[in-house]
Amino acid sequence: MYRIRITFSKFGKARWIGNLDLHRTWARILRRAGVPIAYSQGFNPQPKMQLASALPLGIMSECELLDIWVLETIATDSLQNDLANGLPNGIEVIEIVEVELKEKSLQSRLRAAEYVIELGDDIDIQVLQKMISDLLGMQSVIRQRRGKDYDMRALIQALDVVERDSMPPTLFVRFSACPGATGRPGELLEYMGINAKSINRTGLLFVDNDD
User: Fold this and answer.
1) Are the CB atoms for 9 and 61 separated by under 8 Å?
2) Which of 178, 73, 163 is nearest to 123 (CA)?
3) What is the pTM of this model?
C-alpha cells in the first residue's frame, strides 16, 4: 500500500461544498480517474482518504490537503493530469506527492490555520486597528459555540490589518487549529461587527512528524 498527498485549492462555487460532500466528490474523482484506491474493512467499506482540516462553508482555500491510500505505486505527474479532466469547477490540484505510510495523520499534527480576509470599501482603518489592539490586549473573550462557552481570544495566535494602495484593507489572522481548539473566521468577524467580501485560507501549519 502507498500513501499519496494531494494539495488543492477550493474557490468559486466549490467553496459551498461541505466536508462530507467533499469526501464524496473526491471519491468520485479518483474512481473516474482509475486510481487504485484502498478501502476500509467492515460491513460498509469506504475509500481510505483523509482531509487535513474541515474548511468552514463559504470559505475559499489555496492550501487544502488530502491524503489517500492506494494499492499500487502511482506516477504523481501522470496522476495530476488524470485528475485534471474530472475536477469540478472551483477545485484545482496544486501538487501531488508520495509520503511515508508511517507518517502520523495530518489531523494529529495540525496546529494552526492562516486566513486572509478581504474587507469592504467602507471600513475605517483607524477604527479597525483600535479594535484589533483592544482585542489582542484582552485576557479572554468568552463566546458560545453550539451552546458551550469557549475563549475565542485563546484561539487567536496572530491578527493584523494589511493596508493596500487604492484597495480595501485585508485582515491576516492565524488561529489555533488543534483538536477541540479551532478558531473560525466567521466568529471573529461577528464579534468585531464587520463584514467580509471574501475569506481565503492561505496556510496550514503542522508540527514535525516526530513531535
Assistant:
1) yes
2) 163
3) 0.92
Give the model's confidence band at 77: pLDDT under 50 very low, under 70 low, under 90 confident, else very high.
Answer: confident
Question: Looking at the predicted structure, is the pLDDT value of residue 12 above 80?
Answer: yes
**Which uninterrupted H or E stretch holds 182?**
strand 181-182
Candidates 6, 22, 179, 13; CA nearest to 95 is 6
- Asked if the model's pLDDT at residue 211 lies above 60, the reply is no
The single-letter code of the amino acid at 100 is: E
Which CATH number among 3.40.50.2300, 3.30.830.10, 3.30.70.580, 2.60.40.420 corresponds to the domain 2-103? Answer: 3.30.70.580
Indicate the helix (H) or strand (E) that contains 39: none
| Cell digits of residue 16 | 459551498
- 109-206 has CATH 3.30.70 classification: yes
CA 145 to chain centre: 19
In whole angstroms, give the CA distance from residue 173 to residue 110.
16
Q: What is the largest CA-CA distance in the chain?
A: 59
Sign of CA dihedral 27, 89, 206, 175: negative
